[in-house]
Amino acid sequence: MKTIGIIGGGQLGRMLAMAAARLNFRTVILEPQPDCPAAQVANSQIVAAYDDPRALDELAQASDLITYEFENVPVAAAEKLGASRPVFPPPKALEVAQDRLVEKRFINDCGIATARFHAVDSQADLDRALADFDGVGVLKTRRLGYDGKGQRVFRSADDDPAGAFAALGQVPLILESFVPFDREISVIGARATDGSTACFDPAENEHRNGILHMSTVPASVSASTAEAARKAATAILEALGYVGVIGVEFFVLADGSVVANEIAPRVHNSGHWTEAACVVSQFEQHIRAITGLPLGDPARHSDCVMRNLIGNDIADVSSLLAERNVLVHLYGKGEARPGRKMGHFTRLV
Ligand code: AMP
């Protein structure tokens, strides 16, 4: 039986490990937090930092191939592992996804629209960049931002940028033009080792406090918008020579065109609905892709709404379980801290 090494021990790793087990793969998790959500359902855990060289050797020894569940895996660690074992998705996808400037340039090179942007490495850069966007834009850290953290929105020319560079930590930033979107959607796509691709239907996403709250499928977009989003995701998969599942987030404009926002080189929160509304989930799709198995049919058998259970939302679980057509998935996390993703549910509608 083959063993898949998974870097990262959160809920995404947990759901990957569960999907792997169903197809007769063993899993080993590299994660510094003992008894993490993924390790609870995997065969074993190496408790160490993601860049610990001895732990990486141990992971390579224990695994036939390696994948990851978050995009901030150190590229050097992925490359070190790649010297002795297949690493999927390719480390190049990490490089692109870890830096918003590199990511936007890459997406544009694929012929896909993004917000306009300027690199910001000083307050003077910021002042110039904001002037170019008439004082309106979204300032983000280039690296290590997630769930809306490390961002500042400038809503009008009256919004004073003084000190904004220092306030975001004097790290490399990017100023994006403000995209006046009608809605946000995402496409979960997959590419297999033989180059075949498959995309699930776009989900329409609603964020609250910078965190995904709800995904609705189908998204209320036209067939041509959905197709444009799927085509863009496929172009990104092909340009990266990708193997595995990717999440691509888009803004949808009033005219129905799509503007790419972000790439996640992994299974994605906005794809959790697939475990309830498709025969093959995004998690199984990823396992199939990286192990050289045929991709599953991404067709949706039901319309659905997925909602995250954040913090104390988990207290509602027993009433959700009493409902028909609701699939609940909990992550094995101890304390229900505010903002912490504790689980999710998908309601078929
Ligand atoms: P991100 O961390 O890039 O996913 O951004 C978090 C959220 O902020 C997005 O889901 C959007 O709702 C909003 N947002 C980010 N960038 C922009 C932009 N350039 N224009 C308008 N809204 C944005």
Derived structural class? alpha+beta
Amount of beta strand: 25-35%
Distance between the termini: 39 Å
CATH topology call of the largest domain:
D-amino Acid Aminotransferase, Chain A, domain 1
By CATH reckoning, the class of the largest domain would read: Alpha Beta
Detail the topology: elements first, then pairings.
Elements lengths: L2 E5 L3 H12 L3 E5 L13 E3 L6 H10 L2 E4 L6 H8 L8 H8 L1 H10 L7 E4 L2 H10 L4 E5 L9 E4 L9 H4 L5 E4 L6 E9 L5 E3 L3 E6 L2 E7 L5 H17 L4 E9 L5 E7 L9 H4 L4 H9 L13 E7 L6 H5 L4 E5 L10 E8 L1
Parallel strand pairs: 1-2, 1-4, 2-3
Antiparallel strand pairs: 5-8, 6-7, 6-8, 9-10, 9-11, 9-13, 11-12, 12-15, 13-14, 15-17, 16-17
The structure holds adenosine monophosphate (AMP).
Please explain how this structure is put together.
The protein is of the alpha+beta class. The chain folds into three domains: 3-87, Rossmann fold (3-Layer(aba) Sandwich); 116-176, ATP-grasp fold, A domain (Dna Ligase, domain 1, 2-Layer Sandwich); 181-348, 2-Layer Sandwich (D-amino Acid Aminotransferase, Chain A, domain 1). The protein has helices at residues 11-22, 53-62, 75-82, 91-98, 100-109, 123-132, 164-167, 223-239, 274-277, 282-290, 317-321, and strands at 3-7, 26-30, 44-46, 65-68, 117-120, 137-141, 151-154, 173-176, 183-191, 197-199, 203-208, 211-217, 244-252, 258-264, 304-310, 326-330, 341-348. Strands 9, 10, 11, 12, 13, 14, 15, 16 and 17 form a nine-stranded antiparallel sheet that branches. Helix 1 (11-22) links the parallel strand 1 (3-7) and strand 2 (26-30). Helix 3 packs antiparallel against helix 4 (91-98). It is globular, with a radius of gyration of 20 Å. The mean pLDDT is 96. The structure holds adenosine monophosphate.
